[in-house]
Specification:
about 190 residues, 5 helices
């Protein structure tokens, strides 16, 4: 009789543990999906915003005449960086090759990310985790969204590239799992988190 009670109690505890773990994983999945949606929405906003289109189309011959466009961009990114602590930095590359960076200064070879974005022809392209050197914290790992921004009026004409880098450690800290580990992997099999 005692063995039966022990067996039933063990089975109930196992089911409860499985349910608790699944609930935590589902919350983490929703958190990650929310981050992905937010970052992709940021990059989509740049397609439709007159301020960003003005910046991306600026050339040496036609300098950015509208200071309010720059103020709008700076205000937008300041808000995003303050609201979303997991965003490490944002890089804009105009069609003229000029770059504008916001957030944490980072250094590293990201040429392959530019090419992948160009090959994506305007689709948001997520990287695997990769190392960069932070001007503030030294070596760190980030995950980036890179995207070619196409002209709204000539949808196949690229006018710039955006890269939004997410701090891997800050994303991990937002997750529910506090004991044990689990892996988040990319389609290519690389461990992301």
């Amino acid at each position: 009789y005692g063995i039966l009670i022990y067996y039933q109690t063990t089975e109930v505890l196992k089911r409860q543990l499985e349910e608790d773990i699944l609930e935590i994983l589902e919350k983490d999945e929703q958190s990650l999906l929310s981050i992905i949606r937010d970052v992709e929405s940021m990059s989509s906003y740049m397609i439709y915003s007159e301020d960003f289109r003005t910046l991306f189309k600026t050339t040496q011959e036609t300098p950015l005449a509208d200071k309010s466009s720059m103020d709008g961009i700076k205000g937008y990114f300041t808000f995003q960086l303050m609201s979303n602590k997991y965003i490490s930095s944002i890089l804009l590359k105009g069609g003229n090759g000029e770059e504008l960076a916001f957030g944490e200064p980072v250094f590293g070879n990201e040429d392959r990310l530019d090419q992948t974005a160009i090959d994506g022809k305007g689709s948001p392209i997520w990287s695997d985790t990769y190392g960069v050197t932070s001007g503030w914290d030294g070596k760190k790992y980030v995950i980036s969204l890179s995207r070619v921004i196409n002209d709204l009026n000539k949808i196949n004409q690229p006018i710039g590239i955006v890269r939004i880098r997410l701090d891997q450690e800050k994303i991990k800290r937002n997750l529910e799992v506090k004991q044990g580990n689990y892996l988040v992997m990319s389609k290519s099999g690389e461990v992301i988190l």
